[in-house]
Amino acid sequence: MDNKDQEKDSLYLKLIPYFDRYGILLLLLIMIVVMHFLQPDVFLSWRNVTNVFKQISWQSMLALGVFMVIVTAGIDLSVGSIMMLSLMILAIVAKAGAPWFVVAMTPLIAGLICGLINGLGITILRMPHPFIMTLGTLYIFRGTGNLISGGTPISGFTDEVRYLGHGRIDLTWLGLEKSQYLPVSLVLIAIVYIIFWVFMNHTRTGKWIYAIGGNPSAARASGVNVNKILVIVYSLCGFLSGIGALILAGRTDSGYPNAGLQSELDAIAACIIGGASFFGGRGTVLGVFAGVMIMGILRNGLNLMDVSSFWQQVLIGSIIVLAVYIDVLRRDLGTRK
Amino acid sequence: MRELMRKVVVFFSTIFLLTTMASVSFADGHGKKILFSIKGPGSGNPFWASVTKGAEEEAKKLGVKLILIAPPQEGDVQAQINQVEDQLAKGVDALALAPGDPNAFAPIVDDAIKSGVPVVFVDTKGINEGVTFIGTNNMNGAELAAKFICDKTPKGSDVAILTGIESQSTALLRRDGAIKGFKNCGLNLVATQTAEWDTAKGRSVTESIILKNPNIKAIFASNDNMGLGAMQALKDADMNDVIVVGFDATPDAATSILKGEMTATIAQFSYNMGAYGVKYALELANGGSIDINIDTGTQLVTTANANDFK
Fold first, then answer.
1. ipTM of this model?
2. Domains along chain A?
3. Domain containing B197: what range?
């Protein structure tokens, strides 16, 4: 190998870690640029950008929960159902006239309990794979939600309950117009994602979550209580679905039986696009955020362009395959040292 | 101990078998046996609950033995097919069917007719030739909604349509009916987009539509869930004078209309679908003949009559 080749190779090697970490952001950036050129007046307007964040707000919570589960090499198919059940419980409690802080707490507690059930089922009942437990609870939670509500929508919440999903932060003091407000859901996404970024990267539990996904037997050997971590992860995933329910309650002002139908698939897709691996141990919080954004921007952009829903399905599917293919290429690059 | 358990199990299963056999043979003694297959459980949707009620009360009145079945989840076509096949194998005198998927049910309907079981379609029209359809004329209903919007807005105003899942005939008929109505009175249709019958999607899609078309004057939502979502988007954008007309007349929509939010909705007479389904299936079972299309009607619901639908 002559000198020049070696230089080129070492440049590649230097770039690989960055590409690995930020490659997905590049895809996101390309999409934003393309959409901007297709819809120059609208796409990057204040209102549309805030619209995108409002629209992805509840999906981003589900995706973050599913992401942690996927890092442990597990899967949670029940997030959509957990969200629906939490939403229905919220609606019933609200209808019964409970004060707003009780109403706002119920979906979080309900979500946490549902997640706890998943975690305990997987560890104590020793289900051969989380797929099975959460497939079961996918049906159980949705069925329960239908049973307690009679399957009919329950509408009408107070402004306090709707704050997270519907509230706005006035920015007129910055000299902006009244229409240029900040949706509370955008701030919420930022806060939750930062908290979980710190949790996953800078706490012992977070590092263990990566460890049991990457190599469970090694983690066990080094004294990690794998079952305890798994219960924590599934509970947090349920809790995040509960936050999703609270946001959705704000957005739609209604507890409705079809809420979150198939949204577990959207959540999984966002994680996969964002670079999480089904074999566990890989993926970043930032990547998940990019994955959620990519799906959100795709839907929003196609809606703006009046594209039929059938094309939306085809394109979202294609993006999943494309994103994972980029991932495969990326790893090829990494191993060709 | 184990021996005892086994005896207990055998005892109870024998009793269970005997009672089921007895009930089946007694039931056969009364009138005709009509199978009514609906798309989703009554507990999952007030629409099917009302169809169920209509069918049950009519069956009682006419003294027929009604077997009403629904798949565990709306849209679970395979489960519905299995249920219908199983019941047909057991033997019925007539079938009233709300097919989850008209194409998938076509061969089953053909087989049933061939084997002497007459069929009527309820709610959703099948593709089999010569089979009576009992249900809402969705196109007329949507046209009714469009006409209402025409009366309330100046000529040439911007309007939009939220459609349902566009692979379902109900969604297409409602869309086409609304388009026809808007065209006839010269309104300017600026967007036709799906929100897949869903409230959250109804809101998201409307947010995009009103952003691109700030002068919009009215939105027709192909069902109330999407209409309620659209309402939230409009409220959020302070566009409170935009007219929203839904379809289905759910209790939530009625409440919203009374509060002065949604403007109107279209009511289907789902109770009639259940009742007519039983009535006309029985008529066929008794060798009679019926019209090929039986309209169960639609009705405009506004502040004037929304109280009846709460």
1. 0.71
2. 25-335 (1.10.3470)
3. 138-268
